[in-house]
Amino acid sequence: GLLSRLHTSTPTIRSLSSSRSFSQNIPSCLWKLGRLNHVAIAVPDLEKAQSLYKDVLGAQVSETVALPEHGVYTVFVELGNTKLELLHPLGEKSPIASFLQKNKTGGMHHICIEVDDINVAMTELKKKKIRILSEEPKIGAHGKPVIFLHPKDCHGVLVELEQA
C-alpha cells in the first residue's frame, strides 16, 4: 500500500561515521595543522578592553607587550583551551591602525593556528597558490616563527600560522 511505498522511497541518510572519513578527501601534506592558538581582536582602547576581560569577565590577562616589528601592542587573555589576543596599533604604519580606520569599534582581526613545520608549510602553500604576506617567517608574540596567509586566499579570513 501507500505506507510501504512511502517507506521504500524515502532516501537513505548515511551517518558521518558510516561514510568515508573526511581525511580521505584531504591530500597528504608534509606538515600538519595543530591546535587553534588564538583569535586576535583589534581594539581601539587597549586599557578598556583589558578591563572588560579582567575586571568584568574575570579572565587572566597578560601585561601589554610591544612588538615594533609587527606594529602592535599585544595582550593575551587566557581561556583555558585557547587565548584571545588583543591588538592595538604601535606606530603610524601599524596594520592595526588601518584596520581600525575601517572598523572604528574594533573587531576580529585574525586567527592563529599552530603548525608542526612552518617552513615546509610555506613551501607547500606557495605551490598551492596561497599567498603569504612575507617572504620569510617573522618572530611573533610567543617568540616563535609566524607567517600570515592572504585573506582573499582563505575565504576572507586572515590566517596566522605559528610554529608549534
Could you walk me through the main structural features you see in this protein, from its secondary elements to its overall organization?
The longest helix is centred in the first third of the chain and has 11 residues, at 46-56. This protein has helices at residues 2-9, 46-56, 95-102, 118-127, and strands at 33-42, 60-61, 65-67, 72-78, 83-89, 107-115, 138-139, 145-149, 159-163. The N and C termini lie far apart (62 Å). The mean pLDDT is 89. It is built from 4 helices and 9 strands; from the N terminus they run H-E-H-E-E-E-E-H-E-H-E-E-E.
Mean residue pLDDT: 89
Q: Kindly identify the CATH topology.
A: 2,3-Dihydroxybiphenyl 1,2-Dioxygenase, domain 1
Tell me which CATH architecture applies here. Roll
What is the CA-CA span between the terminal residues? 62 Å
Major sheet description: 9 strands, mixed
How would the global form be characterised?
A: globular
Question: How large is the count of helical segments?
Answer: 4
Radius of gyration: 21 Å
Beta-strand content estimate: 25-35%
Helix content: 10-25%
What would CATH call the homologous superfamily?
A: 2,3-Dihydroxybiphenyl 1,2-Dioxygenase, domain 1
- Pattern of helices and strands: HEHEEEEHEHEEE
Number of domains: 1
Taking pLDDT < 50 over at least 5 consecutive residues as the criterion, the unreliable ranges are: none
Q: Please state the structural category.
A: alpha+beta
Enzyme class: isomerase
EC number: 5.1.99.1
Pfam families: Glyoxalase_4
Catalytic activity: (R)-methylmalonyl-CoA = (S)-methylmalonyl-CoA
